[in-house]
Amino acid sequence: MGECLLALGRPIQAVVPLAAASALNDQVRAPFLLSQSFLAIGDYERAAKWAATVLARSPGNRVSRAVAENPFVQRVLMDGGGALRRRER
């Protein structure tokens, strides 16, 4: 359901079902989509957290590396999540 909501351009509504799916299994698809949802809504701290989860579960996952390489996510990771929590305007 979360994947469908994300595909429909409803990333906020996708968060809860994707978070539930991420907690219920050890695969990487749901946490990857969750990181994409957080990127879409501008919550780079949570996007970075879920990208790191995907990398921990599957270190060679190229898609999660791409999320982690997002400039906003990198700034969150560099400053420990303090300064940049929402998309800069």
Report on the architecture of this protein:
The chain has helices at 2-7, 11-24, 29-41, 44-57, 62-68, 71-79. The chain contains 6 helices and no strands. Helix 2 (11-24) runs antiparallel to helix 3 (29-41) and helix 3 (29-41) packs antiparallel against helix 4. The chain is mainly α and 89 residues long.
Secondary structure tally: strands: 0
Helix and strand composition category: mainly alpha
Strand residue percentage:
under 5%
The residue ranges in which pLDDT falls below 50 over 5 or more consecutive positions are 83-89
Task: Output mean pLDDT.
Answer: 83
Element order, helices and strands? HHHHHH
Biggest sheet record: none
Assign a percent range to the helix content: over 70%
The CA-CA distance between the termini, in Å, is 31 Å
Total helical segments: 6
User: Which value, in Å, is the CA radius of gyration?
Assistant: 12 Å
Overall geometry: globular
